[in-house]
Amino acid sequence: MKEEFLYYVWQYQLFYKSKLKTVHNQEITLLKIGVQNKNAGPDFLNAHIKIGDKTWVGNVEMHVKSSDWYVHNHENDSNYDAVILHVVWEHDVEVFAKNNQPIFTLELKNYIDNDLIIKYNSIVNDSKRWIPCEQQIHQIEPFLLNNWLERLYFERLENKSEFIKELLQKTHFDFEAVLFMQLAKNFGLKINGEAFFKLATSLDFSIIQKVRFDEMQLSALLFGQAGFLDEDVEIPFHNQLRTEYYYLKHKHQLQSIHKSHFQFFRMRPPNFPTIRLAQLINLIHQHQNLFSKIIEIDQKEDFYKLFNVDVLDFWKTHFTFETTSKKSAKKLTKSFVDLLLINTIIPLKFVYLQTKTDFDEETILRLIQQITPEKNSIIDTFSSLQITAKNAMESQALIELKNNYCTKKRCLHCAIGIKLIKNN
């Protein structure tokens, strides 16, 4: 038995209420069960409970065993002085208030239908399933599922926004600088994301702003900072960048990172860090005040136009400095731009719009719902369970559901889990 099950049973009153009695046979009438407390202190606050012929107003504390009161040292914590009812699964020891009077205790196991416990255990405690409710999730009505997925998506956005807010604090709320850092990280994708982020934070963004008008200078700055210009390569383009970078390095007192941070192994050439960096450079070169532009845009097709980058001619015939290749444009694909929208643009727009008094979540929803759902093992497995993502909002929500609810067995915090157990 877990305390969270007791919280769930109490909150939804899934027990026989008509003949409740304390362990000392005093009648209990629940007038208000209280509001669940997510912070430190008693589990439910401001409850109104009639015990015997007297009505009490105060808090409710819940434990699996009465003795947990002492295990958790509540007797020494003044936050628990206003507890009017101790709700436990098993009463194994008397608990006393500071006036040496026993605290009213309700042993809940005597008032819960055994079928509810069986249903709870069958969903939560089967470790062999990919998700606890995989055999029942298809039964959930679309209205509940859609509302829950929308809420999960905004939970995921909130989680992503924490890191963005940390970066804003460090940059004195320079949204352009934070946009560059986040774009860099996501241009690196999963394998090179941290290396790209390390590159983006290895120099002050003001230096990038000073040289961004000259694409060769900007290339020298960023390829040099990434360590790709450290070695002498007998290629004119490389030598030109190298000479320019040493000038910028001395002028701005820069310290480059080592190119060993960047991985090429087992990567398709279009995703080589050299190509992704060349594309990022062109994007920064093309657009002054890029952050202002992404705030103004709210249509997917307009973002495709904004991210229609080119690369310097050298990169059209190269994937690395050393080797030549068949000439190709090396444009950003729509699927790549979709990833930028999901992981960079929309989270940053979300943080920015939250600072506005007229913030409307529909602005974010309209954009994310235009984007095709991601393809990965989580989305594929949900699809096999008859839960199919129709857009990126739903695929992001399903990832959140799997990682932060299903895997952690947080069924009693999940609208789907609550509904399935409650249907008993």
Distance separating the two termini: 18 Å
Number of helices: 18
Structural class assignment? alpha/beta
Q: What sort of overall outline do the alpha carbons produce when their principal axes are compared?
A: elongated
H/E element sequence? HEEEEHEEHHHHHHHHHHHHHHHH
Q: Count the E strands.
A: 6
Q: Considering DSSP H and I runs of 4 or more, what fraction of the residues is helical?
A: 40-55%
Major beta sheet, specifics?
6 strands, mixed
Say what oligomer this is: single chain
Low-confidence stretches: none
- What fraction of residues sit in β-strands? 5-15%
Please give the radius of gyration in angstroms.
Answer: 29 Å
* Average pLDDT metric: 93
Organism: Polaribacter gangjinensis
Protein name: DUF2851 domain-containing protein
Pfam families: DUF2851
InterPro entries: DUF2851
Please tell me about this protein's structure.
It comes from Polaribacter gangjinensis. InterPro entries: DUF2851 (IPR021272). It holds the Pfam family DUF2851. This is DUF2851 domain-containing protein. This protein is an alpha/beta fold. Among the domains are: 110 residues, no CATH class; 171 residues, no CATH class. The chain is 48% helix and 9% strand. The protein has 18 helices and 6 strands. Strands 1, 2, 3, 4, 5 and 6 form a 6-stranded mixed beta sheet that branches. The radius of gyration is 29 Å and the shape is elongated. The mean pLDDT is 93.
